[in-house]
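Q: I'm teaching a short session on how sequence maps to structure, and I want students to see two examples side by side rather than one. Could you give me a first protein with its sequence written out and its structure tokens following it? Keep the formatting plain so it prints cleanly on a handout.
A: Of course. Example one:
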Amino acid sequence: MGKGRRKSNLIPFRGRSPSVEEGVFLDPTSRIMGDVTLRSGASVWPLAVLRADSEAIIIGENAAILDKVLVEAPMGHKVLVEEDVIISHGAILHGCIIRRGALIGIGAIVLDGAEVGRDSIIASGSVVPPGTRIPEGSLAMGIPAKVVRLVNEQELAAKKEQLAELMEKSEQYRKIFG
């Protein structure tokens, strides 16, 4: 973002201001509050809220935070979303770590201290309880989320294709919204 240009959806809190690198798509209806870092190529879609008024939130390169996602970093639990991650519509991330290439399904919830491994998928509507570790390359589902099998090559390819499509769309939206 250019110097002197402040978007109304970037909200400082207690001396901590969001940091947005070049090439980020930030929908104008999203809210980015406090100590949030958005790395290059990340996208934050309509009505998403990233609230870092206690701990930091870091969103990695080319990560997509889709519509109506809530990301909060409560006291003692930062949020780290590594590169090439998709956080699907209506998901909630609360004080957790999401490793590179993971996909969090629609409406899934990942709670304090949980860690989702690289290239893993959390099925829609699942709840990952506090402190849970989902191993790399796993498909987890249910309440509470349990690993049911390994992610297959088709799922990995579909996830990669979905991310590419989101990146292409976010570039178009960046041109529209500036």
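Q: Perfect. Now a second example for contrast.
A: Example two:
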Amino acid sequence: MSRTLVWRAVLTSMLWTPLWAPMLAAQAGGAPTSTTQCNLDDGRQVYVRYNPVSGKEKPVNGKPWAPGGAPMTLFTEAQLTLGSSVIPVGAYSVYPIPAKDHWTLVVNKGVTPGAAYDEKQDIARAQMETAQVDQASAALEVAFAHVGARCTLRIYMGKAASFADFTAK
């Protein structure tokens, strides 16, 4: 290996290490997260990142829920609709609001880590289709089902199963 290549490798690692180190340290020390994605027919994607908390964490009925102390995060490469609201391309916080017979899904512009939920930042709110399942999930499960331009977000917690449709424009 030539001396020039070795020096290039050393300099490259010295330049990139300060940029990646904070992100890697945050990932190593933070709570584990999971991501679910929906791949649209045209190649664009919609992602939701969340903390897969255990069934021991009980959401409070009527209150916006941030599993594990952090809201779910929606990343979308496509303009979406949720109910009658339009969600532009970008990143957003997502808060499910549980209730006894139905859940509500809120999409919020506030994405600052550690910030409290601010209802004034809501850009979409829709009632979720909610049912009770026979087998309780041991931990929060979030998944997408994809059909055409529609990505159905599915949230399972305990015996509650809630669904909301995002439609790509």
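Q: What should students look for in example two?
A: Point them to this: Confidence is low (pLDDT under 50) at residues 4-29. Also worth mentioning: The chain has two domains: 1-30, 32-168.
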